[in-house]
Amino acid sequence: MRQIVLDTETTGLDPAQGHRMVEVACVELVNRRLTGRHLHLYLNPDRDSDPEALAVHGLTTQFLSEHPRFNEVAQEFIDYVKGAEVIIHNAAFDTKFLNAELNRIGQPNFDQLCEKVTCSLVHAREIHPGKRNSLDALCDRYGISNAHRVLHGALLDSELLADVWLAMTRGQDGLTMDFGDDESSAANGMQLERFDPLTLKVASASVTDLEAHEAYLQGLDKAAGKPCVWREMQ
Known about the structure:
Number of strands: 6
Number of helices: 10
Radius of gyration: 25 Å
CATH architecture of the largest domain: 2-Layer Sandwich
Oligomer: single chain
CATH class of the largest domain: Alpha Beta
Largest sheet: 6 strands, mixed
CATH topology of the largest domain: Nucleotidyltransferase, domain 5
Distance between the termini: 43 Å
Helix content: 40-55%
Order of helices and strands: EEEEHHHEHEHHHHHH
CATH superfamily of the largest domain: Ribonuclease H-like superfamily/Ribonuclease H
Strand content: 5-15%
């Protein structure tokens, strides 16, 4: 399974107002492992960035003027994302700009060039409803250091999002440990057998356990001044 984690920086908020991409970066995952085969492009937008956008990414008009225009590197970009699932945080924003750049040179929309577009922001909101789900907030939540993120940069943000995505979608499919491939397990002298849930032993709470639990709930009731939530769920 090949996945691409993608991020862009732009001159402003809306391509319909003539704003352009100034940077695009892609980080490759194959079978949920970082490959180190990244794609990172600075782009000459032939215009200035809005002051607000410049404050975010710090890419000056002079710096960008020394880099290629999108049409000059478009085929390299298309070849890179072709056939992959592309993961983008707030995908609606980035794909709006990608579509505009691609359509400008006669190419179809971005989602027709790759296998699938997945929005990591939508996914984060589904598993963390009611919480902040910005990239910085997710880094904090999953213990991923972003201390070096002073300005937004497409490559750095893609690398951080790749770490966040792997942490956010790791999950656990069973009660057995995943020791990697069969060869690795064999090298450690381990023989993993198929897990049978029918072999699990069920341990019931003792009378002492139940009494201790009830005492704990009474303490919660007293502290809250009303029956605790646990009692309502029973």
